[in-house]
Amino acid sequence: MTHGNAIETREERPTWPALRRGWRRRCPNCGSGHILSGYLKVRDACPVCREPLHHHRADDGPAYLAILIVGHLMAPLLLFVFETWRPEPLTLFTIFAVGCTALTLYLLPRLKGAIVAFQWARFMHGFGRAA
Q: Where are the transmembrane segments (predicted)?
């Protein structure tokens, strides 16, 4: 990409390794530093390689994907369990409420890391811009 006389070159950023690192909640650049400082709070920069991460725009993406995945896994499972064993309604509700909550809480930080890593790998939202 050219801007006047200056030429900006972008190094290759493979998407799949970055997604795997993000899923593990690691920096998409080095794979060593933690990308999250809390449960869902993304650090401004990687503590190891100092890669800026504040550009991310994950917003509601992780929650949307978590709902999509949990719904598509648990709804057929709910139907299967109900049709096969016919448990009491309160038992069925309790088991699936706990299961849905646990799976959602497991997925949210991993999906957030993966979305931030995807944005980093694709130079989206300011990732890759000269500092």
A: 63-84, 90-108
DSSP letter string over 105-123?
HHHHHHHHHHHHHHHHHTT
Residue 7 inside a domain? The answer is: no
Task: Establish if 128 belongs to a structural domain.
Answer: no
pLDDT in tens, 25-38: 999 999 999 999 99
Retrieve residue 114's tokens: 């993966």
Report the run of H or E that residue 6 belongs to, with start and end: strand 6-7
pTM of the model: 0.88
Please report whether residue 2 resides in a domain. Answer: no
In whole angstroms, give the CA distance from residue 85 to residue 91.
11
**What's the total number of domains in the chain?**
1
User: What is the gyration radius of the CA atoms in the chain, in angstroms?
Assistant: 20
